[in-house]
DNA sequence: TTTCACCTGCTTATAGTTCTCAATACTAGC
DNA sequence: GCTAGTATTGAGAACTATAAGCAGGTGAAA
């Protein structure tokens, strides 16, 4: 289910890119924090521990590359950063996110349950849907009390 | 149904703000382009026609104020701009957007159809939903051909 | 080992947005 | 209407996330 380093090496190679030390370190940082939706700066700080000479430009460049190759995808929580997460083979659409308005926690929702709505949209608007982006704002169970 | 200048004047007054010439001009620009999801620069250019001395800082400040007072809301189409649209009294949740990956057109969807999903989420995660943000990416009827 | 395209870190540039501040415009109380 | 006090403004500088330019480094293929 999870994408791993070997898979990424394959994907890069196929497109003529190399899995350099820096790229592997960035990938590791994302793999080891797969639920955290890191931004470039957070990734930079994690990677610097093992790879102290890395420049932040490399982090940005690598994330763009990974995004182009569908290894990661960008998510936007409207906090002024681009954030990134792995794309899993098992999901054909991006999963949904619940964002707590009180504590800022982000919860992932694997249920899709959009078929009815998507069918309605395709029928009503003649719009053929490729992907979606769904966020719910509210209060998590901890903050609701 | 539509919010109007008088309503806004009321809302501002209640909170101790004034409906200045500049604020009215910005509101007008948004009202007259209610389907367009303008960004601050576009608003600035429209407003400058009737209000040539306005500074762009005033546009940014006013949009922030309108957002705080729930007169407009910010929408993000991942094109590097904040965009703004009026909030209508009739909708309790933000409407959905269809974004064409080919021509960039943005279509509004007034059907909500998220009750099943939202109920599932409230039940399964104990997360109490206040609002949502739903975007569909794909190809519009013109581009599909 | 030589070649050559890829890749890197450093630095500078870009662009959307916010901040600072002095000047101006309103408003309420006289 | 005048005055005092507050809200608002425009201009420009500052900020911040990200991208671009460049010269040197790296590593696989010949
Ligand atoms: Mn996620
Ligand atoms: Mn809209
Ligand atoms: Zn919470
Ligand atoms: Zn289209």
Comma- or semicolon-separated keywords:
homodimer, 145 residues, alpha+beta, Arc Repressor Mutant, subunit A, Dna Ligase, domain 1, 2 domains, three-stranded mixed sheet, 6 helices, globular, binds manganese (II) ion, binds zinc ion, DNA-binding
Beta-strand percent range of chain A:
15-25%
Q: How many E strands of chain A?
A: 5
- The CATH superfamily of the largest domain in chain A appears as Winged helix-like DNA-binding domain superfamily/Winged helix DNA-binding domain
What quaternary form is this? homodimer
Low-confidence residue ranges of chain A? none
Shape of chain A: globular
Helix-and-strand structural type of chain A: alpha+beta
Number of helices, counting only DSSP H or I runs of 4 residues or more of chain A: 6
Shape-level CATH architecture of the largest domain in chain A: Orthogonal Bundle
Please estimate the helix content of chain A.
40-55%
H-E order of chain A: HHHHEEEEHEH
- Looking across the biggest beta sheet of chain A, what order are the strands in? 4-3-5
* Most extensive chain interface and residues per partner: A-B, 35 and 35 residues
Amino- and carboxy-terminal Cα gap of chain A: 36 Å
Radius of gyration of chain A: 17 Å
The overall pLDDT of chain A, averaged over residues, is 92
Describe the largest sheet of chain A: 3 strands, mixed
- Unique ligands: manganese (II) ion, zinc ion
Number of structural units classed as domains of chain A: 2
């Amino acid at each position: 289910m999870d994408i791993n380093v070997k898979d990424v090496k394959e994907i890069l190679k196929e497109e003529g890119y190399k899995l350099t030390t820096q790229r592997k370190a960035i990938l590791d940082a994302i793999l080891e924090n797969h639920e955290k939706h890191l931004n470039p700066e957070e990734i930079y700080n994690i990677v610097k521990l093992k790879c102290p000479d890395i420049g932040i430009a490399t982090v940005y460049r690598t994330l763009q590359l990974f995004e182009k190759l569908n290894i990661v995808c960008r998510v936007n929580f409207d906090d002024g950063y681009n954030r990134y997460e792995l794309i899993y083979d098992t999901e054909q659409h991006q999963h949904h996110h619940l964002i707590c308005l009180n504590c800022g926690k982000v919860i992932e929702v694997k249920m899709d349950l959009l078929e009815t709505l998507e069918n309605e949209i395709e029928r009503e608007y003649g719009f053929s849907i490729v992907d979606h982006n769904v966020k719910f704002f509210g209060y998590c169970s901890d903050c609701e009390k």
